[in-house]
């Protein structure tokens, strides 16, 4: 794991993120868990550890500076991305990780236990059927659907001052034209990843 640690530490420095040693160890333990469970659960198509650090950890943590508020929900979390890396680094923030795939939510539950994360809850449900008692400050989605679908499916989860953060590849201009709400597109540079990345922030629609 030494090479992974080096990639992670250098990547965090490039992102100007100060993450302590305990959190770095937990992030690397999370990669080990994905690797271990991947054989049986097919969590991710990425099999190479070092690529996992770049495409899972650094890709997730690149949006960390844009997280605000006390309650965050990660929709379509899959193997816990970006939710678990963000929750490791933001222990004071409450995270809910939602996915409709039972195998993946079982893995996420196990990762929460093994990594001793006190600020994370997992929910096995479809987003349109999930109606929490308390709404969220931030809704995060990563490669989940088109922007107008995301807005439609998640609007009921956001608090009045809340906002949506949609992680995208190339700038989705055609999708942006279909959104009437206030929106900002921020280019994201992920260390070690050539492909374009951007983050779309859409203000609450309630």
Provide structural commentary:
The mean pLDDT is about 95. The termini are far apart. The protein is about 40% helix and about 20% strand. Helix 2 runs antiparallel to helix 5. It is of the alpha/beta class.
Give a brief description.
The chain is of the alpha/beta class. The chain has helices spanning 2-14, 21-41, 49-61, 83-89, 102-114, 147-154, 173-177, and strands spanning 71-75, 94-99, 120-124, 136-142, 158-168, 183-187, 198-203.
Task: Provide key terms for this protein.
single chain, alpha/beta, seven-stranded mixed β-sheet, 7 helices, 7 strands
Number of strand elements: 7
Spans of at least 5 consecutive residues with low confidence: none
Radius of gyration: 16 Å
Order of helices and strands: HHHEHEHEEHEHEE
Q: Count helical runs.
A: 7
Query: Strand percentage, roughly?
Result: 15-25%
Topology:
Blueprint (H helix, E strand, L loop, with lengths): L1 H13 L6 H21 L7 H13 L9 E5 L7 H7 L4 E6 L2 H13 L5 E5 L11 E7 L4 H8 L3 E11 L4 H5 L5 E5 L10 E6 L3
Parallel strand pairs: 1-2, 1-4, 2-3, 4-5
Antiparallel strand pairs: 5-7, 6-7
């Amino acid at each position: 794991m030494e090479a992974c640690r080096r990639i992670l530490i250098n990547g965090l420095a490039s992102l100007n993120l100060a993450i302590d040693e305990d959190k770095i160890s937990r992030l690397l333990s999370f990669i080990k868990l994905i690797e271990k469970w991947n054989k049986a659960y097919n969590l991710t198509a990425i099999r190479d550890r070092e690529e996992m650090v770049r495409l899972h950890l650094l890709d997730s943590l690149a949006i960390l500076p844009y997280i605000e508020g006390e309650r965050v929900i990660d929709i379509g979390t899959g193997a816990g991305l970006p939710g678990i890396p963000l929750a490791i680094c933001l222990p004071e923030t409450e995270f809910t990780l939602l996915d409709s795939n039972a195998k993946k939510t079982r893995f996420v539950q196990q990762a929460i236990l093994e990594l001793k994360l006190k600020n994370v809850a997992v929910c096995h449900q479809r987003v349109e059927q999930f109606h929490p008692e308390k709404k969220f400050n931030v809704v995060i989605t990563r490669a989940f659907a088109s922007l107008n679908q995301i807005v439609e499916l998640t609007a009921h989860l956001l608090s009045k001052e809340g906002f949506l953060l949609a992680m995208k590849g190339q700038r989705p201009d055609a999708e942006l034209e279909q959104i009437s709400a206030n929106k900002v597109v921020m280019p994201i540079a992920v260390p070690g990843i050539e492909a374009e990345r951007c983050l779309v922030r859409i203000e609450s629609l309630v």
